[in-house]
Amino acid sequence: MSKTVINPPRLAKPTGYSYAIKKGGTPLFVSGQVALDADGALVGEGDAAAQTEQVFKNLQAVVEAAGGSLDDVVKITIFVTDPSYRPAVAAARLKWFKEGQWPASTYLVVSALALPSMLVEIEAVAMV
In which domain, by residue range, is 50 found? Predict the structure, then answer.
């Protein structure tokens, strides 16, 4: 089965990873998305709500670049560096996914992400 790398041009060019891999025509495994804009600049430094919004924009861009939509996301894993970010993340999740059609989800609090200024990261599996 063929493998397609998905690196949308409207996101920062990845180094050492792909934004997503599509294999066998059905599952799409999306790397953890963080709050970097297309120029690689962090959006919302110190602001979990702003970072979560950018993370969902990036997740949407990756899934759309693979021919899907957020409706196709079946599983997300959310990583945050502080449990107090949960309300901001939950509010964003309600905004970005249709009510009653939310993906399976795991929420983890970790000591740090790739850079100290990153507060939220979300990875996903979509069926496209």
Answer: 3-127
CA-based nearest residue to 36, from 20, 16, 49, 54? 54
Question: How many residues does this entry show for the chain?
Answer: 128
pTM: 0.88
Q: How confident is the model over 67-99, as pLDDT tens digits?
A: 999 999 999 999 999 999 999 999 999 899 987
Nearest to 118 by CA among 85, 73, 69: 85
Give 99's contacts (C-beta < 8 A, 6+ positions apart): none
Residue 53 DSSP SS3: helix
Q: pLDDT value at position 24?
A: 58
Q: Are 19 and 29 in contact (CB under 8 A)?
A: no
CATH value at residue 95: 3.30.1330.40
b/e per residue, 50-71, with b = 16+ CB within 10 A? bbbbbbbbbbbbbbbbbebebe
**What is the count of structural domains for the chain?**
1
Asked if 30 and 126 count as a contact pair (C-beta separation under 8 A), the reply is yes
